[in-house]
Write a structure and sequence with these properties.
The chain has 13 helices and 18 strands. The protein has helices at residues 40-55, 63-71, 80-101, 105-108, 128-140, 183-201, 217-226, 246-253, 271-275, 291-304, 319-331, 345-350, 376-380, and strands at residues 3-11, 17-24, 29-33, 117-125, 145-150, 172-173, 178-180, 206-210, 234-236, 258-260, 281-282, 308-311, 337-339, 356-358, 361-363, 387-388, 391-393, 399-400. The protein has an eight-stranded parallel beta barrel with strand order 4-5-8-9-10-11-12-13, surrounded by four helices. Strands 1-2-3 form a three-stranded antiparallel beta sheet. Strands 7-17-18 form a three-stranded mixed beta sheet, with no helix packed on it. A hairpin with a 5-residue loop joins β1 and β2. The protein is globular and about 60 Å long. The N and C termini lie far apart (44 Å). It binds D-mannonic acid and magnesium ion. Magnesium ion binds next to loops. Pfam families: MR_MLE_C, MR_MLE_N. One of its GO terms (biological process) is amino acid catabolic process.
Amino acid sequence: MRIAEVKVIVTSPGRNFVTVKITTEDGLTGVGDATLNGRELAVATYLTEHVRPLLLGRDARRIEDTWQYLYRGAYWRRGPVTMTAIAGIDTALWDIKAKAAGVPLYELLGGRSRDRILVYGHAQGATIDETVADVGRFLDRGYRAVRAQTAVPGTQGTYGIGSDGDRYEPASSGLPEETLWSTADYLAHAPTLFAAVRDKYGFDFHLLHDVHHRLTPIEAAGLGKAVEPYRLFCLEDPTPAEDQSAFRLVRQHTTTPIATGEVFNSIFDCQQLITERLIDYIRATVTHAGGITHLRRILALAELYGVRSGSHGATDLSPVCLAAALHVDTAIPNFGIQEYMPHTADTDRVFPHGYRFSGGYLYPGEEPGLGVDIDEDAAAEYPYEPAYLPVARLHDGSMHDW
Ligand code: CS2
Ligand code: MG
């Protein structure tokens, strides 16, 4: 089962996606997501110029060996561009292997550990009243877990507030949007949102919130402590995620569960966080953490230390990533929660898929492989559009974490 072709398809049905499509000599195809928001062409070029020539003629069944070849063999290890490229290849090879076996991918990962995947949706609003009302809309649609974000007076373009209903799309065309951040205003405002949400709807659903790496460790510790009465399912990315030992300080002060890791690309980004039990949910996902092969290693380490999964599922991860994540979620013993923002109709048209949402849960497709494909003709209708994630500045004009 030799690899005959490796295509890298860049398409923008509302936002940019990079997809790897591998075809074997015997005509099997597999797809993998290799989208890195705002840096899409860096990954696409890495794949076409540096990876594709290494794969042609290789045995498509040797997934682990191919992973080791691309990671260990390259000398330059890790990093979001490299690991996203490897993830695209790795995911496509798993898709092929499952199709060759005639089973949905989760069967090759150990079979079902659960029947359905708990997801959380994104409620948002320009005011607390609007966000509270939006939480109600998610609950009405059957969601059992909702993340709540609201604009903060004194800031502009506050992280977490989109203009597009169900989804939050931070990237925009042109140069990066400049947003204004004030930690003091945020810290005064955020707890009042959770109070209003719990006051209106009670405690019979999971409430989540994303801080998006904005706080220092001691600020994050204080926020975690202040919001304990609202019993969050988790507080996401309370402090910049690359400083693993900083989470010790947060942990010492609060029992609010902590989630982090959507920007991680390697097990070494979270080794200390996991082995010191500094977090509760690891948010690494297939596309940015080296594919199914490497994500499984992260999740296996996490299982040993009681850390559960909380896979990143923003709309800048394509339906190929979501499908792959759902197979992993289905199989692993230490599943926690899956983030879910529905894609646009245009994106769903480019990526026909078998997974579906019902009653607060996602169900992976039952067709062989990942259960998702790319319609190359449809993809060609949406050419690449340069877009960037925003940047954040403080009132004095200096840069802040975004
Ligand atoms: C966010 C993302 O989903 C989340 O939790 O943090 O929307 C994130 O901003 C984007 O994925 C960045 O590409
Ligand atoms: Mg996040």
